[in-house]
Each structure stands twice: as structure tokens, then as C-alpha cells.
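Reopening: Aminotransferase class I/II-fold pyridoxal phosphate-dependent enzyme still failing for me.
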Amino acid sequence: MNDRRRQHSLVTHDQHDDRHYGAVHVPVYDSSLFTFPSVAKMEKAEADGGYVYTRGNNPTVHELERKLAMLEGGERARCFATGMGAVSAALLSIVRTGDHIVCVNQAYGPARKLMGNYMRRFGVEADFVDGSDLTAIEAAIGLKTKLLYLESPSSLLFELQDLRACAELARRHGIRTLIDNTWATPYYQNPLNLGIDLVVHSLTKYVGGHSDAMGGVVIGSAERIGEFDRNELILLGSVMQPQTAALISRGLRTLPLRMERHQIGGKAVAEYLESLPFVERVRYPGLPSHPQHELAKVQMTGFGGLLSFEAGLDKEKLVRFIEWLTYFRIGFSWGGYESLVSIQERSADPHNHSVPVVRLYVGLEEPEDLISDLDEAFRAAGFN
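Support: Ran it again with your exact input. Result attached.
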């Protein structure tokens, strides 16, 4: 599905379906279970993975999974109640007691905490490395390593990994690869086509797109998805509800259109920030100044609306700037229609000195309005 023109049609067009009386959208099957006219038919449904109990399969959720798998270029997908539900299930399907994980050090914070802290109680160890350095990744791989966990681009410092090279490296060492592809979405990046084994998304972000539903998905080959289909999915119970699947399916209809709009706004805001003398660094893979811009152009077909910048060490001054903004509301998430801003910190050196980083999410508002808002807030906060 690398042809983005086909992706527009895939998310928009459904064939006429007499099962649903020609409804243009799959109905919400708001039922916890499904009954049968005979024991034999129920047993056949159980054996064939049919609709028996919504914790395992539901028609509304299944339709969303089918489309997400096609968009990502995978054979199968399974949806979860949250993005971390998807990450947890995928991880636990791969590692066992005594195993080791290599994870990029800029991955999503709760995912790092799960691997680096929580899973230690079960005898699983993890090392966190610079994902932009393939040599560092390989050096961290040992005899007990079973998984290479990636996130490209990362969602604060926007570092990339060379996905094809990482996949080839992992295959040489006989380990699995798993990537968080939330920033790029299936519209702008398809890691499975580059050799990655499993892809996870937080559907709460761009795919849902309306800041009113939470969800996650794992996508891959039928064999790899089947490995946790009857274990982690069913036993952990972090399944997506049919009402949620309907909301996210609605968002999926407009994903290509929204991503193109986010890219326009994101690039405009990034270029504006880069033109300001007091802004020291803008982190956005769509800018030619990004140190991995050429790699981004090779493995991605576009860019979204999430970026960050640094403008000195005076955090109080940056907080005044943030609180002066009108269009950018203060919040940690992203991927919806609304523009957001937050402030976080990155480690600057081995002595734990930190640098404040402002993260901007460019929503669907008019870019000129957003830039005017930023300009006014900068002046009000004393930047010049």
C-alpha cells in the first residue's frame, strides 16, 4: 500500500454489503457474545476464529483491523484498548524469562519503563541505546537478546533509525524487530515493507484523529500475529470495545486528508521557528536541516505535525511563552484536530544537566493563525 492514492480509496470506499442492509459504515456490534443454533456451529466458530465472544473477536473491531493491516502492508492486525495494551501484548509474545531486549533510548516513556523496570521482576533485561547509531545497536546485542525495539521517528527529539539496516541486523542475529510507527502513521511509513517484523500504533493519535477514543494495534504477518492471538490478546484482556472501534474507523476515513494537512502546517511552523534568531534548534524530520533528513526521505513518504524546539535554558521564560498561546492548548497528547503544546526536558550531558524542550503539535487550524499566535507569545514572553 505504498501508493498513497490507493490508500485514499481504501479508507474511504467499502463495497455494498447486504449483511448490513447496504449501510455505508459497518454497524456497531454492541454485543458481548454471539449465540448459535447448534453446538456444532459454535464449536466450528471457536475453531475457525469466528465471532463467539467479543474479548476475542467482534465484527466492528475486525473491520478496523482488516483495514489497518491493509494500510500497513501486513497480513493481520489485532486492536487493543490502548497503545500500551498493544505494546505490552507484543512484547510479552516475544520475550521469556532470561531474555534480553535492545531498545532505542528515545522510545515512548511508558514503553521504556515497562521494559527497563517492570519486566525485570520476571527476569527480562533491557538495554537502551542510541537508535541513530547502528554500531551501538549491534554492540548491545548479546546471546540472550530476543528483541530489537524501535521508534522512528521518536516523539520528542525526532530521531530516526535506519529501518532496513536494523531489520537486516536483527535477522543476522536471529532476533525479532518491533517498531512504534505512531508518528508517521501507515500513510507516511510502512516498516513491514522494510523488513520489520511487527508494527504497533497508538490509535489514540492520528488514526483516531478526534481526541475522543483510545486504542492500539499490532500489525504483522498472519503467523506472527497468531503467536499472541490466543494468548496475550485473550489472557491480558486489553481488548478494544466495538464502540471505540467505530469511532476510530470514522477517523480512519479521513486519515490521508488530515495527514496532508498536518504536514502543511507542521512544515510551515517548523520553517518559521527555524527563522527565529533565538531558537537554537528545531527538531522536525521534514526540514533539510534535520541531521537525518536524507534517511527520512528514503524510508518515509511524508511528515506529520509534531515537532519540538529549544530556545535557551530559561524554563520560566518558556513557560510564560506557552501560557500566552491561544491556539496551542497545553496538553501532552497529539494526533487530534487541535494544536497542543507541552514542555519537557532532555539530558544534555553525562552530568545530568537538562535542557528544556518545547513540543508543538500542529493541528488542523490555519497555519498563518498558528504562526501569528506563536509570534505574539514569543514577544509577550520577552523573546527577541
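The mean pLDDT is 94. If you still see a failure, please send the error message rather than a screenshot.
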